[in-house]
């Protein structure tokens, strides 16, 4: 890296342009709850936990105004958003140590301190990390949702959501004779959408801004459903078509069989089948 880039700024710029899996840390002030690390929560070499609102490693306030944290009102919205998003992840990705979520919100620099009603609004990042480490399967699924919120007249707000999905899965035959049969599928997909919606009041408090969570959550849910379908078509199905169309020897046929097993809903791409089942069940409830 040092031989190719002239200075640290070039290296930093490169890392900001290259997608890489989300790292995980634990918050000692929140009973060891896990949280995800991203540049939006970083100050120097430290990252802020969405659970305790503290930076790790700890940093001291500087003379120019201290460490970066959301305003008091926005922090209250952030706390509720983390609780809601944790429940969302449990519903669609399952419970356990292999599923981690984090939500970070921040005031816009020209939006005023704690002034969520300003036309400048606020912004946030909603993160999900799902790891797969069972049997012959290894891999991960990362969802990175960055949202920009701008309040408008008439009790409405404009939302711009940019979503990036990173995923990777490795499958190896559990037969020792066929241990060389390995398959890897990895990739990423990014999509952006904008919506203007009314902000519902979830309490009688005139300054309640948690209605934004409902609007953002619905956008994220719809976006993830669409992108999972796109990933299935772009990566999974296309790979199957290629594997089925190429001329191969007996060893390659075994790998093709492994591919077919992975693509099936029975014991294959476990994460995908769980997600599809959850979406189907939710769709059925809505229709009823």
Structure description:
The protein is α+β, with helices and mostly antiparallel strands. It has a single domain (19-287), classed as Aspartate Aminotransferase, domain 1. The chain contains 5 helices and 10 strands; from the N terminus they run H-E-E-E-E-E-H-E-E-E-E-E-H-H-H. The strands form 3 sheets. It has a 5-stranded antiparallel sheet. A 3-stranded antiparallel sheet has the order 3-4-5, with no helix packed on it. Strand 4 (46-48) and strand 5 (55-56) form a beta hairpin. Helix 3 (211-245) packs antiparallel against helix 4. The longest helix has 35 residues, at 211-245. The chain is globular. The chain starts with 7 loop residues before the first helix and ends with a helix.
Please compute the radius of gyration using only Cα atoms.
22 Å
Q: How many runs of DSSP E, i.e. beta strands?
A: 10
CATH class wording: Alpha Beta
Strand content of the residues, in percent? 25-35%
- Whole-number tally of structural domains: 1
CATH topology (level 3) name: Aspartate Aminotransferase, domain 1
CATH superfamily: F-actin capping protein, beta subunit
The parts where pLDDT drops under 50 for at least 5 residues are: 14-18, 111-119, 262-280, 282-288
- What would the average pLDDT be, to the nearest integer? 75
Instruction: Note the run of SSEs as H and E.
Output: HEEEEEHEEEEEHHH
Distance between the termini: 57 Å
Helical percent range? 25-40%
Structural class: alpha+beta
Largest sheet: 5 strands, antiparallel
SS summary, helix count: 5
